[in-house]
Every structure is written in structure tokens, then in C-alpha cells.
């Protein structure tokens, strides 16, 4: 099936693409909704420019769609974007990286139903530890770009998601109830490499910001390099 993917640049939306490819689907386009409101209920607001690198690295065309990020109103912008993808790329379905957010999943499904598109959420209700372990094993290169929970210090910004990080997240889950997959907004990530990428993304200029009890890593400049 010809699929359009909702992509934020984080681990879940990118891994959802990988799972869809493994299931035999053809990812023909991506769309990134860019909210003006950093507190958007639906969309990530940090490092959305990285999605252009993901598009270039994978060879999958990308549509950027700006949105005010106002609750519920931003859904009209998503509907317009998916309608444009259906018209231009003849997609039959849409995939998302939803894991536990009923709010996000149900709204995507409702919009898809209106547009006569099938909605896919290949990560839905996956075990968080098993899911991150699978991402690591797949060869994805994932770094933390937001830390916003008790126990996640500034040292997590730019840290790679590997076995050691996963073990630390397990401990933080037991001690501070941090969701292992970050589903409560505890952290956000950026993907620099994935199995379906033809090139790898390398950050060459970043800026770290720590604001009292949370921090952000802005990826300001990147380059694409050939994969070994």
C-alpha cells in the first residue's frame, strides 16, 4: 500500500516508518506539522528542521505544514496536509508513531476516515522497554534533545539511546516514574540514522539550553555523510 508518514523527527515516528517498510508497504511521502505553539497537543516543536534532513537521507519526499498549534484547530491543518498528500502522491493510508496517546491516535484516525485513508499505528501499545530495545538493535542512531522529568539532568542532552541509557531509564522509571519511552513528555529525541536511510545525519553545530528543571538541545547545523 502507498503510505504517507506523519514525521516529527523523533524515534517513534521514524521507527513506525521502518516497521511499515518491513510489513511490505511503500512509504512514498512524509509530512511534518510545524506548530507555532511549543505546547501543541499534537505535534513536536523542537528540531522540526531535522525532518528535511531525514527526507534527504532517506530519499522520501517531504511536505512541511505550518500550524498555529492551537488545540483542536491544529487538526484542520493536519487534514489539509494529508489531503494534499493524497492528491499529489495517491496515498491510501497514513502511519504515525503513536504508542499510548489515545488523544493523538483517535484524531488522526478520524481525519483519515474523513479523507477515506487507512490509519496505521504500528507501535501502538508496544511494551516500552521492548520497543526501545528493538530500536537499538535495528541500528537506529537516536539522541535525546529534550529532558523534562525528575532525574533527567542536562547530561542527557545529546546522549545516545543505547543499552546504558535504556538501563538508566529503567531505573528512573522505578524511582521517579519516568516513562521509559517518554510518553508523558519526559523527553524527546532526534533520529540521525535508521535502516532505511541512505545517508547518515551528523550534527555539526548545536546549542544546549537548560531552563531550571528542563533542557533542550537545538540542532542548528548538520551534514549528510555516506553510510559505511
From TrEMBL:
InterPro entries (UniProt xref): Diphthami_syn_dom (IPR002761), DPH6/MJ0570 (IPR030662), MJ0570_ATP-bd (IPR022427), Rossmann-like_a/b/a_fold (IPR014729)
Superkingdom classification of source: Archaea
Any coiled-coil regions, as ranges: none
Span of domain Diphthamide synthase: 1-220
GO molecular function terms attached to this record: diphthine-ammonia ligase activity
Protein's GO biological process: protein histidyl modification to diphthamide
Name the record gives this protein: Diphthamide synthase domain-containing protein
Natural source organism: Methanolapillus africanus
Amino acid at each position: 500500500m502507498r503510505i504517507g508518514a506523519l514525521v516529527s523527527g523523533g524515534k517513534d515516528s521514524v521507527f513506525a516508518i521502518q516497521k511499515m517498510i518491513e510489513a511490505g508497504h511503500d512509504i512514498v511521502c512524509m509530512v511534518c506539522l510545524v506548530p507555532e505553539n511549543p505546547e501543541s497537543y499534537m505535534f513536536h516543536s523542537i528540531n522540526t528542521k531535522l525532518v528535511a534532513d531525514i527526507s534527504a537521507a532517506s530519499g522520501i519526499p517531504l511536505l512541511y505544514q505550518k500550524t498555529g498549534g492551537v488545540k483542536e484547530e491544529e487538526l484542520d491543518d493536519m487534514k489539509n496536509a494529508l489531503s494534499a498528500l493524497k492528491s499529489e502522491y495517491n496515498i491510501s493510508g497514513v502511519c504515525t508513531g503513536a504508542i499510548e496517546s489515545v488523544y493523538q491516535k483517535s484524531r488522526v484516525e478520524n481525519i483519515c476516515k474523513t479523507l477515506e485513508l487507512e490509519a496505521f499505528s504500528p507501535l501502538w501499545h508496544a511494551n516500552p522497554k521492548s520497543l526501545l530495545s528493538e530500536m537499538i538493535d535495528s541500528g537506529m542512531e537516536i539522541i535525546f534533545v529534550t529532558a523534562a522529568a525528575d532525574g533527567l539532568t542536562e547530561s542527557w542532552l545529546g546522549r545516545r539511546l543505547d543499552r546504558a541509557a535504556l538501563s538508566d531509564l529503567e531505573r528512573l522509571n522505578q524511582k521517579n516514574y519516568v516513562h521509559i519511552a517518554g510518553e508523558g513528555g519526559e523527553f524527546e529525541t532526534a533520529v540521525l540514522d535508521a535502516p532505511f536511510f541512505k545517508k547518515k545525519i551528523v550534527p555539526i553545530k548545536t546549542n544546549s539550553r537548560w531552563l531550571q528543571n528542563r533542557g533542550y538541545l537545538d540542532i542548528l547545523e548538520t551534514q549528510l555523510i555516506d553510510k559505511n
